[in-house]
């Protein structure tokens, strides 16, 4: 679930951030403000309509129900827009002069420049999704679709008197997040010191 959500967020944030950073279209600023405004709406407020749509679509107790609500992230679009704005326009102009298409400019010019931002977004999204508890609790009704936080809760209920078992299970649950961070730590730090043209 976490990997699918990360892939979805990276794709939608890259496309949305690039469009808001580089294209001039009517109501662009209004769309950007709408994305920022959506960050102020807590998930608990959106949860009931999302659940109703999930039930109506017949997606209850499926991986689609777990992934779809989180595959788009307004914070990710904001973050990628800010990174794409730091990439000098000269890079894009040179690629256009060389005959590159818009897709090629995006994937071969802009995305490599914004790699630190993508890594930071991937780490943040993975951490948030990995520990998501409330939404999987609502839409998962079988062991097939239960996520790790739910499994830990059931494990704690089963071994309530064995604290050492609970601590061992919690430690195992933290390992993937720590491994991802240490694996991408260098790029994550670069994300905070990204400065555009170098040398």
Explained architecture:
The protein is mostly helical. It has twelve helices and no strands. Helix 1 packs antiparallel against helix 8 and helix 2 packs across helix 5. The radius of gyration is 20 Å and the shape is globular. The C terminus is likely disordered.
In terms of topology, how is this protein built?
Layout: H1 2-22, H2 28-38, H3 43-56, H4 63-67, H5 74-86, H6 89-97, H7 102-113, H8 115-130, H9 134-139, H10 148-158, H11 163-183, H12 185-192
Task: Summarize the structure in short.
This protein is mainly α and 199 residues long.
Features:
mainly alpha, 12 helices, globular, 199 residues
Cα-to-Cα separation, first versus last residue: 41 Å
Overall geometry: globular
Low-confidence stretches: 194-199
Strand content: under 5%
Structural class: mainly alpha
